[in-house]
Amino acid sequence: MTEARMPDNPASTSTSTIDMLRELMQEIAGYVRDLMRMFLIEVGEKSRSMRYLAAMGGAAALLGLFSFAFLSGALIGAIAYGLDSWRWALLIVGVGYGVIALLLLVTLAHALQGGLLSFEHTKRHLRADAEWVKHKLAS
Is the pLDDT confidence value at 39 over 50? Predict the structure, then answer.
């Protein structure tokens, strides 16, 4: 019958375990660093187009604001002329603008749900890495 042998130097076993844990932590830190780098690159790519769209949107908003003010004044004046009451004219125009604003917000919500702010490349990479780890642990 063979006797189970204990290692001659128990410190060597614990040192190698500590080294393995240290290497594992370094690998995890490198993996997280690479993921952050990839995420920041993806954000940077999207931010360029978002800045361009924001500048165009700002210019359109400014011009739209002036147009809105002048056309609102003309519309309220026309309705007030027909009704002989500025109060009713203001109410009618206000309700109309509220309905239009709700329609625009619904459209905006659908666009955001469509994935404007999703980072598919990073998600795909994380899913692939998770599958790789599951496969390695299973084998």
Answer: yes
